[in-house]
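Q: Hi! First time doing this. I have a protein sequence and I read that you can turn it into a structure. Is that right? Here it is:
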Amino acid sequence: MKSVFFSLLLTLTTAGLMAQTGEAAAKLAQQQLDGYNNRDIDAFLAPYSDTVKIYNHPKQLQFQGKEQMRARYAGMFQNTPDLHCTLVNRMVLGNVVIDQESVIFNKDREPARVMAMYKMAGGKIVEVYFISPDEL
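A: Yes, that's right. Below is the predicted 3D structure, encoded as structure tokens:
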């Protein structure tokens, strides 16, 4: 009887921790999305680790570190007035968030369809994997 109780308690505790982890991970993903859509480089970068790694799927490293992100995105935020990312779908599992996104770079062109997978650790986004239909 005790082992059933402890097993049930462990299961409920683990589920509760996973839900909390998932909520925190989703909050970080949303925070960076809001910063992106507001073209606010500091708000966009705030949820990222200083050593974040950005990949094209499956493991092609594009750049690393918050300062490289700043260099890459700051110009895009300034020079792309139509820039907007619409969240189509979000899945959360523990410390991983997968967003299906529709991104407008120019309102006269079709939006880009992208999936972004965010991996969290220590309360920050530590890895991002971008997946586009062309890569599959």
